[in-house]
């Protein structure tokens, strides 16, 4: 039952994405080159195919739902073997936290530069992943940030922009 | 022979030699970390190669791919967790051997079999690639378009358990690839008015999102588990820690057959090591005089899958080098690296960059020897070191490496955001059985396919009929269609058998 729901949801998402893509593809400006050579053809064809497959997927999920005793192995079978365990709430919260930290890292990188952004993100990630000892978090954060800074910024020469909020250039750390 | 020139070219680049060795270590360790695949390691290290010459860059990543396939066997044998999908069959006999105190024998068997199979595959590549390239150099845009279509259909059909999801994953990859400026008209396509999207999505952030960040998210599901534990690695049996000459001789015919299977599977786009290892294991067991022993901890049960999965490595480069079509995720990444260094892959590469190509083959052979030596003498040590570092300490560091690696190609914070978004998308795809491998291969091929299509129409007076005028183009499309139909028929038969079995049991 859960797998059927996942299949329905998947099909709806596919049709939705395909429809949005079709709209974007139709919005592409096209000159008088003929439809086959124009920039719209491939995007519209891909979007159309996607919608068609999404409708087919929905139809198959519907048929499986309606027909009794047909669990699993339909010709175009659905979500794998259905044996993936459900997510626990702590796992979902951890994943959400990791993504939020990732986007916060982007903001911090712009605002403060690589060094501070990495240090804050590393400390938060270590806590989210389950390291509770404050001393260990501090040690790993300081050591890890230093190693990453030396390797990526100093040795590889990756550009470290001056932060618009805190600028470490004055300390020679940019 | 050109391969000797290749060795000469390789030895004239000491940096390349150093990076072959570094790649052997890196790939072995990355493959041995449960959940960390060699594709993920390569994705994170691609930005490092921007600062290297083409031979060093390609050799480094190529050897990581090879040694990563081998490294997965360490986790499979010691932790009963496949480090990579290609080592899943090795667990069946590898871990029981570890439980019997024969981990050393198991690891050495895996090392010898991997070296055997990989060398076999590399020799197939060296001797066949140039011959095939001479044939494919006569192809024009219609033939290339047909090849791309065949690749899309074949990969969609064979990857994963659902044809529809394989096709959708492929279409999604094509759609993402299209975003940006049209290559002929220069018009923004599907950019939603965002300036950042006008140059399209960069390959590296997509790779990192789909393979690294999604894996970090998968690992957060498992944080409550106990983590990896290494069973005892010694026993009273004096031969427990080594592969005897008699055992090796017994495995030679098996390794030859398995390597042959792996090489053929490697030639076909989309199948890959995971298919090869199970196919070889199943065939080895079927032909064995004592099949009941398979799965209880015998060296044959390791030799077969390991030689097959590593024999895939070399032949997957054949469609890449001769047609410009990647046969695997790692090959798709390597296409990107070729392009970054200004090298167009396809049959002409054997004319325009012969030294580089044969230097890469030589690096492959040297890399095989390197990881063989490292694995034979240091495999248990690598396993213990990985068991010592818990995932909760490892993955924060991996996440931040992924972030800076996605930033570095274009020095763009937008690319870090792309990696994060595609990390979420990749995670959802994995949970719902869509194929990230099909997505990335389609992403790499899509622009080439569209260009070939539009060039074909420009060259033709007959519109779409140009594809029906070329016998080779028709042949490639027919192959793709045959694989799709074959898969549908196979699924229908399987469904029918299950239905019969179910009605027989009720």
Tell me the quaternary state.
heterodimer
Discrete helix count of chain B: 20
Cα shape of chain A: flat
**N→C terminal distance of chain A:** 55 Å
Helix content of chain A: 55-70%
Class by alpha and beta content of chain B: mainly alpha
Mean pLDDT of chain A: 82
What percentage of the residues of chain A does DSSP assign to strands (E)?
A: under 5%
Overall morphology of chain B: globular
- Please state the structural category of chain A: mainly alpha
Radius of gyration of chain A: 25 Å
List unreliable stretches of 5+ residues of chain A: 72-83
Query: How many domain modules of chain A?
Result: 2
Structure description:
The complex is a heterodimer of chains A (174) and B (506). Chain A is mainly alpha-helical. Chain A has helices at residues 2-26, 41-66, 89-112, 114-128, 134-155. Chain A folds into two domains: 2-66; 89-171, no CATH class. The radius of gyration of chain A is 25 Å and the shape is flat. Chain B has one domain. In chain B, strands 1-2 form a two-stranded antiparallel sheet. In chain B, helix 4 (54-79) runs antiparallel to helix 14 (329-340) and helix 6 packs parallel to helix 12. Chain B starts with a helix and ends with a helix. At the A-B interface, helix 1, helix 2, helix 3, helix 4 and helix 5 of A face helix 8, strand 2, helix 9, helix 17 and helix 18 of B.
């Amino acid at each position: 039952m859960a797998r059927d729901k996942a299949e329905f949801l998947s099909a709806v998402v596919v049709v939705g994405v395909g429809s949005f893509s079709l709209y974007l593809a139709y919005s592409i400006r096209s000159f008088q080159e003929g439809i086959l050579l124009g920039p719209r053809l491939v995007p519209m064809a891909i979007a159309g195919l996607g919608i068609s497959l999404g409708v087919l997927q929905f139809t198959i999920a519907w048929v499986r739902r309606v027909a009794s005793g047909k669990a699993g192995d339909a010709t175009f079978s659905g979500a794998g073997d259905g044996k993936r365990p459900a997510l626990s709430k702590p796992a979902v919260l951890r994943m959400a936290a990791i993504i939020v930290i990732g986007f916060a890292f982007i903001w911090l990188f712009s605002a403060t530069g690589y060094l501070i952004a990495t240090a804050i993100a590393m400390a938060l990630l270590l806590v989210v992943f389950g390291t509770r000892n404050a001393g260990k978090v501090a040690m790993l954060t300081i050591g890890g940030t230093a190693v990453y800074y030396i390797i990526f910024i100093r040795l590889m020469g990756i550009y470290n922009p001056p932060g618009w909020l805190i600028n470490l250039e004055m300390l020679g750390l940019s | 022979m050109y391969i000797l020139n290749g060795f000469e070219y390789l030895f004239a680049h000491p940096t390349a030699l150093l990076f072959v060795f570094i790649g052997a270590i890196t790939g072995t360790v990355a493959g041995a970390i449960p959940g960390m695949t060699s594709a993920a390691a390569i994705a994170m290290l691609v930005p490092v190669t921007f600062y290297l010459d083409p031979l060093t860059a390609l050799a480094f990543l190529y050897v990581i791919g090879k040694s990563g396939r081998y490294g997965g066997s360490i986790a499979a044998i010691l932790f009963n967790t496949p480090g990579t999908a290609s080592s899943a069959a090795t667990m069946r006999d590898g871990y029981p051997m570890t439980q019997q105190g024969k981990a050393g024998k198991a690891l050495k068997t895996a090392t010898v079999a991997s070296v055997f199979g990989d060398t076999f595959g590399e020799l197939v590549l060296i001797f066949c690639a140039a011959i095939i390239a001479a044939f494919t150099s006569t192809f024009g845009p219609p033939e290339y378009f047909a090849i791309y279509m065949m690749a899309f259909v074949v990969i969609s059909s064979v990857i994963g358990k659902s044809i529809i999801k394989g096709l959708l994953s492929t279409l999604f990859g094509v759609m993402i690839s299209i975003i940006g400026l049209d290559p002929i008209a220069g018009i923004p396509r599907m950019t939603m008015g965002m300036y950042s999207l006008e140059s399209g999505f960069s390959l590296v952030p997509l790779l990192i999102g789909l393979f690294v960040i999604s894996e970090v998210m998968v690992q957060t599901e498992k944080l409550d588990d106990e983590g990896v534990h290494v069973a005892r690695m010694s026993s009273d049996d004096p031969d427990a820690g080594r592969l005897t000459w008699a055992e090796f001789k017994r495995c030679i015919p098996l390794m030859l057959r398995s390597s042959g299977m792996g090489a053929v599977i490697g030639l076909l786009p989309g199948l890959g090591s995971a298919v090869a290892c199970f196919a070889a294991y199943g065939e080895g067991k079927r032909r064995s005089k004592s099949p009941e022993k398979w799965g209880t901890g015998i060296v044959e049960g390791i030799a077969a899958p390991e030689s097959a999965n590593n024999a895939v490595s070399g032949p997957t480069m054949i469609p890449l080098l001769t047609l410009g079509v990647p046969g695997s995720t790692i090959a798709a990444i390597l296409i990107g690296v070729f392009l970054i260094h200004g090298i167009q892959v396809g049959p002409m590469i054997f004319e325009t960059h012969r030294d580089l190509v044969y230097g890469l083959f030589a690096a492959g052979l040297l890399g095989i020897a390197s990881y063989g030596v490292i694995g034979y003498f240091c495999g248990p040590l690598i396993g213990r070191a990985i068991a010592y570092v818990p995932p909760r300490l490892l993955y924060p560091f991996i996440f931040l490496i992924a972030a800076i690696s996605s930033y570095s190609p274009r020095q763009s914070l937008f690319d870090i955001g792309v990696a994060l978004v595609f990390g979420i998308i990749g995670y959802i795809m994995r949970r719902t059985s869509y194929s990230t491998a099909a997505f990335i291969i389609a992403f790499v091929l899509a622009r080439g396919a569209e260009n070939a299509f539009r060039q074909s129409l420009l060259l033709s007076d007959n519109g779409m009929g140009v594809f029906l005028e070329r016998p080779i183009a028709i042949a490639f499309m027919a192959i793709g269609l045959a694989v799709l139909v074959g898969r549908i028929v196979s699924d229908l038969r399987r469904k029918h058998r299950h239905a019969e079995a179910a009605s027989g049991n009720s």
